[in-house]
Amino acid sequence: MTIHLTFLCVPGGDATLDPLLGDAPLSERSLLLAGAAGAALPPHELALRAPSIRCSQTADAIGLAAASEPALRDLDVGTWRGRTLDEVAATDPDGFTAWFTDPDAAPHEGESVRRLCRRTANWLSSLTPDTGSAVAVTEAAVVRAAIIHALGVPARAFWHLAVPPLSLISLTRRGGCWDVRLGYVPPREARPWLPSRSATLVHADRVQSTPAHLGAGERSGSSRDAIFVSCR
Fold first, then answer.
1. pLDDT tens-digit profile of 4-62?
2. What is the rounded (10 degree) CA torsion for 34, 39, 43, 49?
3. Which residues contact 93 (CB under 8 A, 6 or more apart)?
4. CA–CA gap between residue 131 and residue 3 (Å, rounded)
5. Contacting residues for 231 by C-beta, under 8 A, at least 6 apart
6. Core-most of 8, 63, 208, 217, by most CB within 10 Å?
7. What's the pLDDT score for residue 197?
8. Bridge partner residues of 203 (DSSP)
């Protein structure tokens, strides 16, 4: 049987976009924008969300009765929680650099990128064939980890995957293959600035659009026709 899984990436909390690390309530503007993204969700039998405040608020904003799923929780940034990227870069420059370049690094004493990728891969693998169509409101980090598993790319590609806030990413499993498709992507004028892996600020529209930069450099619109397939 085929599994259709659609991720809705919540606003906030993405270390490539948001200067504050950790969970926090959404702004009124983010809650309003969530309603528009929610209208693009496909029909589904199962709705899930990460246990964070922002994921709960996003689900409520779009009227989605979603069950909390601990396996979809955000990357644990440990002692960096509640700090800004500028603070971390100033006080722990070596750790800051390692975090964005080494998937096994956990200078914050939390969870490494590779461990997040394994956790997410285990959850995807646990989905039974009768899952059918499901939606999951979750964090950008989890969406990146899911794409890495689906496409079978190395964990070091993690920070190269640009996942815009409130974008929809669909994973479809048929037999041993995952198809990855970007659905709704917010208009470019609504997108914030992205730090590159070296934390240099670059505008999202200036990032080259390739499979390693999903969602970056897209034209304004509600869909994208690129499909990435992994058969294992």
1. 999 999 999 999 888 899 999 999 999 999 888 888 999 999 999 999 999 999 999 99
2. 10
3. none
4. 6
5. 176, 177
6. 8
7. 37
8. 193
